[in-house]
Amino acid sequence: MVKAAALAFALIFTSSCGLIGSLRPAPTIAPLISAAFLSVHLFVGDQGDAQERSRLPDLRDALAAALPNAWATATAGRGQLSLRTDGDIDVELDGTNGTSALTQHSSGGKVTSRKIAVHTVDGSRHLAVPELMATVLHELGHIWCCFGPGTKDGHWAETPTDFSSVGLMYSPMNCRASRGSDPICPSVFSERELAEMRLNGP
To answer: CA 169, CA 165: separation in Å to the nearest integer?
Structure first.
């Protein structure tokens, strides 16, 4: 008889993100939104089949309960996040398969609204809360990051081969999973990401 061993593997989280509405060759320079004091409106969309729509309220509640602390951890204690119906940015849980994305609309050269669509299905997989949390953090990071030398399509140009909890602005993101357990995904912005977010102070 062969002993069953826990299977550990790297999960490539391919539904990481896209940028729509603004390719942002330069940073969003706006006192209207700050990584240090960010507010989010997290809500459930009306897309998806009946099974996935039935999951969305529980996913929203789990993310809402954890997001303020997750943001504080991700920003090394330099950022605060609150949940409000009139938040700085709308985050919609979309119960369909697709590429999660930040959409920014501008008028007269100024960003007038921002929305993140977070898809809860990746191919045939129903994403777990840790994967969705990493996606939300990643997409929020796109408000400020990443552009200029060393970047490609809003992400760092290099792709790490090993899992690390530090560094959220890669595409795709690497998560680590064990059989029977939820994936462990990146959860902390790197120092260069915090600098892009203007959170590089103590």
So the answer is: 12
Residue-wise pLDDT tens digits, 84-122: 999 999 999 999 999 999 998 777 777 777 899 999 999
What is the pTM (predicted TM-score) of this model?
0.86
Task: Name the nearest CA neighbour of 186 among 194, 176, 200, 178.
Answer: 176
Please check whether residue 173 is in contact with residue 132, taking contact to mean a CB–CB distance below 8 angstroms.
no
E-only strand ranges, 35-184 = 37-48, 80-83, 89-97, 101-107, 110-122, 125-126, 151-152, 155-156, 173-178
Identify the CA nearest to 63 among candidates 121, 17, 11, 128: 128
Q: pLDDT tens digits, residue range 2-50?
A: 333 333 334 444 434 644 433 333 444 444 689 999 999 999 999 999 9
What domains, with CATH codes, occur in the chain? 11-196 (3.40.390)
User: Where does residue 64 rank: exposed (0-12), middle (13-18), buried (19+ CB within 10 A)?
Assistant: middle
End-to-end Cα distance, the chain: 56
